Every structure is written in C-alpha cells, then in structure tokens.
Amino acid sequence: MTDTALYDIPGPLARRRHLLYGLIATAVILGIIAWALYLLFDTHQFTAEKWRPFAYKGIQELLLRGLGNTLKAFAYAAVLSLALGAVLATGRLSDHRPVRWLATLLVEFFRAMPVLVMIFFVFVALKVQPLPALVTGLTLYNGSVLAEVFRTGVNSVDRGQREAAYSLGMIKTQVMTYVLVPQALRAMLPTIISQLVVALKDTSLGFLITYEEFLHAGKLIASNLDYGLPFIPVVMIISPIYIGMCMLLSWLANWVAKRQRRNPKTEAVDIAAAEPGTLLPGAGHQPLQ
To answer: What is the pLDDT of residues 185-201, one digit of tens each?
Structure first.
C-alpha cells in the first residue's frame, strides 16, 4: 500500500465484486447494441436499395459540396468569433466604466439570445444571404461566450503577476500582451476548443435557412422516395464525419498545448551553478579607508 493512495486498496472480495459489476455493465451495453442492430435489420435499414444512392457520383458530389460549405461557414464563424470575443473581453476588462458597461450589455444580450433566433432575424428581417446570416448568428453567440472565457482566463492569473508587471513600469497593454494573456491561454484553451466544437455543430442550423451545408445535403438524400427514404443510412454516414471533425479539433488543441509546453519562452531557464572563486560585481574592490 502506498502513502499516496486516495482510497483503500480493494481486497479479494471487493475485486471480485468489481469484476462482477464490470461484466454486468458490459453485458448490458452489448445487449443494447444487439437490440439496436436487430431493430435496424428488422426495419430493412441495411438493404441495398437504401445504400445504393451513396455509390452514385452525383450523391457523392452533393455530400462533398455540403461538407465544404459546412467547413467554410465554420471557418468564417470561428475566426470572427475569436476576434469578437477578444474585442468584447477587452471592453469588459477596460478601466473606463462606460466601455465596460457597454461590453457587458452586449455579452449578456447575445449570450441570452438563442442562436437560431439570431440567424432567422438576420436572414428574414435584414434579408441577408444564407451564408452571411448563418455566420453572423454563430459569431454573435459564440463570440459573446468566448468573451467571458477570455475575461475569466485573464482574471484567473495570479494577481501578483499583474502587480509585478506594473511595478516594472509596464503599461496595461504590455501587461495584457506579455504577461497575462500568455499565461491565461493554457487555462483557456480547452474551453475555447469546446466552444469551437459547439460552433461547428451549430453550422447544421443552416439547413433551416436553405444554406446547402452537410446536413442539408443529407436531408435531400434522406427525403428521396426513389431510394426508399434512406434516413438511417444518411445518419450513419453523416454522424461519424461530424464526430471525426470534432475529434480533430480536440487533437489540434492537444497539439497546440504540447507546443506551448516546448516553447522556450515558457520553459524554465537553466542557470549554471556558481563556481569557487566567482566574484560578485564589485567584490574585487577594496573598501575605502
């Protein structure tokens, strides 16, 4: 038994009980999977008729075009959300009260407003094209959420770091740029990536305003009577791709975090040990008599 154990090491009886629980949970999960597969086969979801459309070049091009449109909308929304979040967070951290109040009002308003309502408002009321309307709604919502992420991350840095920077004569812009933001970025990165995943999934709302994104392409295929309404096959094709894109974002976050840890600016600097006979500055001078 180690001194660092957070709980008692289970004995033979507890290990057998845990093994039994694991076997029961595995059996339940396998049973659910088997039941789902039975329903799929029973409703003829794996028949050749329902899967035949995916072999056609036109259907493949439709899906690829929808995927490209999804990635385009996400790229615009991600970049603009990060920029808007940085601007609003700067306003919320401002020393000027009117600027801080205005930024707070905008953040709270866009965070509380459903993203679908904003998309429809821009599309219907302002008569904007589907892509700009989708990007605008995603930017306003995700940018306001990221603003709070940035503000919280900066405020989470130890107060002594801020005070030490000011004591060196730095102005606020330098303190934020060189001291607070680089340290806060590590804490903010997982939440930033999580919010970008939300933005990626919310691009699927574009099909409600006739934007031809990935889900819209799948809907056109699934509602086709010529292929026997292949709704489940479309879901089984589209879902893994969405999951894969979200996992790719998570991998990107881990890669950026590892590069930050290897950054010379964030690593400790090795200082050579003092050797015998090393004189401090001024140690060689004789005191005045």
So the answer is: 877 888 888 899 899 99
169 backbone φψ class: left, alpha, beta (φ>0; ψ -120 to 50):
left
SS3 readout for 189-229: HHHHHHHHHHHHHHHHHHHHHCCCCHHHHHHHHHCCHHHCC
d(Cα 146, Cα 139) in Å, to the nearest integer?
10
User: Counting beta carbons within 10 angstroms of the beta carbon of residue 209, is it exposed (0 to 12), middle (13 to 18) or buried (19 or more)?
Assistant: buried
- State pTM to two decimals: 0.76
